What we know:
Blueprint: H1 11-24, E1 27-31, H2 41-53, E2 58-61, H3 66-77, E3 84-87, E4 90-93, H4 95-103, H5 107-111
Parallel strand pairs: 1-2
Antiparallel strand pairs: 1-3, 3-4
Helix pairs in contact: 1-3, 2-4
Amino acid sequence: MTFDPNASLPQEEVTEHVDSVIEENDVVLFMKGTPVMPQCGYSDRALQYIGQYREDFATVDVLESLDEYRTALEAHSGWETIPQTFVDGEFVGGSDILVELEERGELEETLQA
Length: 113
């Protein structure tokens, strides 16, 4: 199996997927890679912080269609950076925000959907 960095999904399909995943899950992390194999340090850090307080949360690997996921996520959050965490349909932030919430002692409560 080879990876084609120019392959992507149709924007409409990605947008619908993002909308439904955010709506259907209490906590969702849009990340580069998978929980078993994160593909960037920021995604790995976000995964670890969420995993401290939640066993059950959704993840979406954005790498199969990165530009389209950035566009779809920006419509929800105003940001195109990855990773992005949503709780109860609301944008929380990326790994830097999760770190700040943890340092203030607010991350556990934030993740309790």
